[in-house]
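Teaching assistant here, posting this on the class forum so everyone can see the example we discussed in section. The complex has two components, and the goal was to see what a joint structure prediction looks like when all of them are supplied at once.
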Amino acid sequence: MSGAEEVEIPEVNYVSGSAVPIRGNDIDTDQIIPARFMKVVTFDGLGEFAFFDLRFDDDDNQKEHPFNEERFQDSSVMVVNSNFGCGSSREHAPQALMRWGIDAIIGESFAEIFAGNCLALGIPTVTADSETIQALQDWVDANPDGEIDIDVEAEQVTYGDETIDVTVDDAQRKALVEGVWDTTALMKSNAGEVRKKAQELPYVEDAAIPDAE
Amino acid sequence: MSEGTLYDKVWDRHKVTRLPTGQDQLFVGLHLIHEVTSPQAFGMLRERDLEVAYPKLTHATVDHIVPTADQSRPYEEDAAEEMMSELERNVRDAGIDFSDPTTGDQGIVHVIGPEQGLTQPGKTIVCGDSHTSTHGAFGALAFGIGTSQIRDVLATGTVAMEKQKVRKIQVDGELGEGVEAKDIVLEIIRRLGTEGGVGYVYEYAGEAIENLGMEGRMSICNMSIEGGARAGYVNPDETTYEWMKETDYFQDNPERFEELKPYWESIRSDDDAAYDDVVTIDATELEPVVTWGTTPGQGIGISDPIPEPESLPADKQDTARRAQEHMRVEPGETMEGYEIDVAFLGSCTNARLPDLRRAAALVEGQQVHDDVRALVVPGSQRVQETAEQEGLKDIFEEAGFEWRNAGCSMCLGMNEDQLEGDEACASSSNRNFVGRQGSKDGRTVLMSPGMVAAAAINGEVSDVRELKEVTTA
C-alpha cells in the first residue's frame, strides 16, 4: 500500500472534564441525531443537531434539555442510563456528540453498535450499575463545573471525594490504552493473510481476489 | 461459550488473526453499501490515500434517500441528489457494482442482496445499516457496522469484532391463522427486551421457523437488532437452497450450486451444539402482536391490555410512562380501535412479495378508510415489477392505496414520505421510536403486513383475523 498516509492514533488513558447528565433509558439514535440531518456526505457540522428534536420545538424555540443549559456548555463527559444508543448503526450519532464536545460517556449500558462506533472514534463508553450512575447524575446536576476523571486502564471514575469502580470492556480498554482503536492500518498490515483467507473460502471466486501488491 | 454452532463455524472460517486488542480480524465475504453511511468512509479513504481492497466483494444500491414518487434526475431535493451523485462517483472510481434505479435491480439493500444471490449461507456480510441482520435468514453471519468500520472493510476487506455468545430461540409448534413471522419477532422482543440480546447472537430454530419461507425468516432476523442482538440467523435447509437456486448468481453459474452446497451443509449448527442460553416460545399461543409504545419491545397481543407502568420492572417504568403519554394510550385498554391516519406497507422488514400478496388478498374488493392515507412501497424494483405483473398494484390502487417505487421511504423518513404532525401510522416497518417516521410528534404502531391491511381498511388498529377469511403466513 505504497503512498498510504500514516495516521497518528492517540492513546486514550484518561478523560477529564465536567459532565452533563442525559437521563432516560432506551435513548435511541433517532433521538440522538434525527435522520433528516443525515442527508450530508461528511460528518462536519453535525454537532449542532445532537438531540435536536429534544432540544427544539417546531418553531426552533429551545426546550428544556441539558444540552441547552448554559451550565453544561463546556461539558465533555456525558452520563447516561441504560441501553443508550439503541437503534440504527448510524455513526452520525457519536459523531454528532463528539462534535458537540463529548469525549467520553459513562452509563448503565450501551447498545453494541453504538459502543463500537464510539470506540472507532476513541470515545470510551464505560459502565456502572444503575444506583452508581444515578448518584453520579445527581452529583453532576449539583456540580455542573465539577471535574470528573475517567481512568480507562484502572477502570475508575473520580468525582468530588468519590472514586467509583466502573467497567470498560476488555477489547475497548486495550484498544484505547494502547492506541489501536483505529484499526485500519493495523488490519491492512495483515493483507497477505487476508488474501490467503479469501483463497481458502469456497465461495470467493479467484477473480474477486486482487493481485498481491 | 457456544460450541459447534453455525456462528462458531462461520466465525472460525473467516478469522484472519487475533488483534492486539483481543478482537478478531474477520474476513468479509460481502460488503453492501448505500448512500447514507458510505460517503464519509470513502472520504476517509481518500484522506489516507487508500484504495478499496476487494471491490468485487462489494455491492452498492441506493435506498434511504431515493424518492419513491418522482425518481427522475436530478432528484428534486438537492441533498438527495448530492448523496446519489457522491455514491455514483465512489462506485465508479472503485469499480464496485451498483444496482442503481436504471438497472431494474435497485431496492432496499436487504431485499436486493438475497434476490441476486449475493447473500449466501456461510458468508460474512456487513453493511452500514443495523438491519443487516436480515441476511442471517440464509445462514450467513451478517451484522451492521458504523462508518469507521466501513472504512476498515473498504480498505482491508476485513472487520475487527469481538465474538459474542449465542442464544438459541426455539419457536415450537405452528402459527395460528392470521399470525405471521412479524408477530413471532415482536413477541421475542417483547419477552426478552430491547437490550436482552446485547452480547448475543440469536439462532432462530424450531418448527415455526422451519415452516417459514425465506421472506418470513428475513423478517425475523431483520429485527434481531431491535432486541439488542447485532446478528441473528437460521440454519440453512432445503428452503434456503431452493431460494439460492433461483437467484441470478446460481442461474448464471449452476455448477457453483453443487460446489458450494457441501460448504453450506458443513456450517449448520451441530445437533449437539452448546449454546450460552436457550429460550423456548410456543407458536401456537401467539396472536397478532402490535406495539403500544415507542420501543419495539413495547408490544402486546391484539387482545391484551396495555400494561400499567407500575406493573413493569423498575427500569422500564419511566420509559413506559413517557411512551404512553406520547402515544396517548391508557393502561388497561387494548390497542384494538386505536385510530390511525396513515398505513405504511414497506421497509426491509416487510416489503417482499409474500408480504404484498398477503395484504393484497385482504384489501381486494375493499376500500381504504376515508381518513387514512395508505401507501405501498415495494422493497425492490423486482418486487415491484412482479407485483405489477401479478395484478397486485391494481388491487392496491383500486382499494385506495398509493403504489410507489422501491426504497426505505416512510420507515425512517429520509425522503419525502413522512408522517405529519401527530399522525398515527400502522406500519409494517421495524422501529416505533419517537420521530422515526419523520415527525417528532408522529405515532408509530408496528405490526405485520396483514395487520396493516386491516388497519388501513378499518381506520383503526384491528384484528386481521376478524377482517375476513385469511391464510396463515
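For the discussion questions: Residues 182-212 of chain A form one domain. Helices of chain A lie at 29-32, 52-55, 92-100, 112-120, 130-142, 170-177, 184-188, 191-200. Think about how each of these relates to the inputs above.
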